[in-house]
Write a structure and sequence with these properties.
alpha/beta; 7 helices; globular
Length: 246
């Protein structure tokens, strides 16, 4: 399952967290750098949450965008935004681990999807869905917990509104706990899972993808002279990735 039922109870808080600075200056900036030009592309946004990126993909010129999420409340928020400002986004409440679009797409985005796989088998299932959803030559682009840099004891990103903990060193299947504190002061928690970088790389290769690469989190240029971001980048909790369907 891509999103546990607990996301229904934190949907509003999760949406509010998209206002945290790292979401814009690091996460969004890096994601769109990797995606490149979306004009005229068809996009499937797996684990879309409340649709924040689904809408941004459409605003960036994508021809068709479909967002899929298992959480009823997340999809309700996404559909409410679409009702408020009609962009032509389509939303489906479904488990991304078992979803197949009507026709293959140019790009599948998996923003914090793969880190919900606790086992290699579960990861294989996610990647099979991604591969099947893409046309030949299509791209998989995503964001993930940074398994290349698991949280170390005593390290803290609390000043950015983010805390991330797990056993160190982690083993495949270990829980990674996230605690996010919004500007309102309200905090919420959720869990995902650690799998070693080599596990990801083997699974992506075995799924049939080529040209896989991790992409380090980048800071928007306007912020690069601000030392505020030094700690975040030194222990970056997130990473992008991309791969090509043969």
């Amino acid at each position: 399952m891509t999103r546990e039922p607990a996301y229904d109870s934190i949907a509003a808080e999760y949406r509010e967290s998209k206002w945290l600075l790292f979401r814009h200056y690091v996460e969004r900036y890096t994601l769109f750098r990797v995606l490149g030009d979306l004009r005229g592309r068809t996009v499937l946004d797996l684990a879309c949450g409340e649709g924040v990126y689904t809408r941004q993909f459409k605003r960036a010129g994508a021809a068709e965008v479909t967002g899929v999420d298992i959480s009823r409340e997340m999809i309700a928020l996404a559909e409410a935004e679409e009702h408020e400002e009609s962009l032509g986004c389509r939303y489906v409440q479904a488990d991304a681990a078992a979803f197949t679009p009507e026709t293959p797409v140019d790009i599948v985005t998996a923003v914090y999807l793969l880190n919900y796989a606790r086992t290699r088998d579960a990861l294989d299932g996610f990647l099979e869905v991604c591969f099947r959803a893409l046309r030949p030559g299509g791209r998989l682009v995503g964001f993930n917990d940074n398994v290349r840099s698991p949280p170390r004891p005593g390290a803290s990103l609390a000043k950015y509104g983010l805390e991330r903990t797990c056993r160190y060193p982690p083993r495949d299947g270990d829980v990674i706990r996230y605690r996010i504190t919004n500007y309102s002061g309200q905090a919420f928690e959720f869990e995902n899972y650690y799998l070693a970088p080599a596990t990801y790389e083997a699974a992506i290769r075995d799924a049939g993808f080529v040209e896989f690469r991790w992409v380090d989190a980048e800071l928007e240029p306007t912020e690069r002279d601000d030392g505020y971001w030094d700690d975040f980048l030194a222990q970056a909790p997130l990473t992008a990735f991309t791969a090509l369907r043969r």
